[in-house]
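Late entry, evening session. Most of the bench is empty. Finally got around to the prediction I had been postponing all week. Sequence below, unchanged from the version circulated by S.P.
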Amino acid sequence: MSRVIIAGGGIGGLATALALARTGHQVTVLEKAARFAEIGAGIQLAPNGLHALDQLGVGATVRAGAVRMDELRFMDGVTGEHVTSLELTEAYRRRFGRPYVVVHRAELHTALLDACRDTAAIELRSDAPVLGYGQEDLSVWVTLADGERVDGEVVIGADGLHSAIRQQMVGDGDPIVSGITVYRAVVEMDRVPADLRYDRSVVWWAGPGCHFVHYPIAGGRYLNLAASSVDGSTTAVAGRPVSRERARAEFPALGGTAQRLLALGEEWKTWTLVDREPVDTWTEGRVALLGDAAHPMLHYAAQGACQALEDAVVLARHLTPGASPEAGLRGYAAERAGRTAAVQRAARNSVVLWHPAGAAARRRNERLRGLSQQDLREHLAWMHGTRVAGAPVRPTVQGVAA
């Protein structure tokens, strides 16, 4: 039984701990915060993410608190026109083997955390920020901020966007600021007028240089609002509170129904969207990257958590107790790097779908209207249809990013 050290106790880190413990490893998770917790609001889980959660043994728990979606609904945010919807009902679920659900990010994190706490092979340590790693011969270690050294046989850097493990391994500096700011708020569903609830829909309102997404979370008790604006921002901001007036002022081009929904938000916060270029370097000896540390992406593909969950399952399949850790980590990286790079690029490229104006927006609407339900399903099959227990799936067509 080998000891694996995981830097980072977010969704990716906890999923990896579960996956590795289930395959015979002893795992220590080191979380820099004073307690294990997850910030943020809604998160979308496509079938590929649910397949991974089922393999981790927590799929049923997550689905019990999730809201099952019946459609991905695309609206022209200026005219209010319903352009098209991808139906997520019987044909979609039969094609991909699982539903499409939305959850509160904290609920997903809690399900993983509770399962880790119930697993004897997993040690959870909070208030343990990892600064870097070292390795020699058959051992590897991480150094904590207080100078403590934690030794093991393998180190996994699941320490997020500003990963200390990635910085030492890849050294690619700060994340790339996209020039897009997202405004987020959560509203009690009781405050939402009945005609605006869209209880089983993820709804997008696309406008010139902006778009607005909303869907129910927490079992339908809340409505999650997220509105993105291409504002040319060059400084990364995370979770900064802004006034209701400031948030609404950023989206004057959106029409009446979208404006009514935006008006419901009160406690708005902003994040500058950032990502990184895909890289081939995911491993160094007995150290590997995972999740946002390996492939941070814009949220427009709604795949950040799903890809981290896939990482965890694939890593556990390659990191076999008793076999060469170095070879196992290389095999994991080889299987995952191409797929996650494709999703990163799809997320970036999706702005051409969301943000055109005038004639370009009308042409986009016509193209989307011309796609059948089968067309839409197959367009997303390379992303949503992957089952990580089997052979890796490579994209064959550029997906319509979510």
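Two things to note before I forget:
DSSP finds 13 helices and 20 strands in the chain.
Residues 325-349 form the longest helix (25 residues).
Will write this up properly tomorrow.
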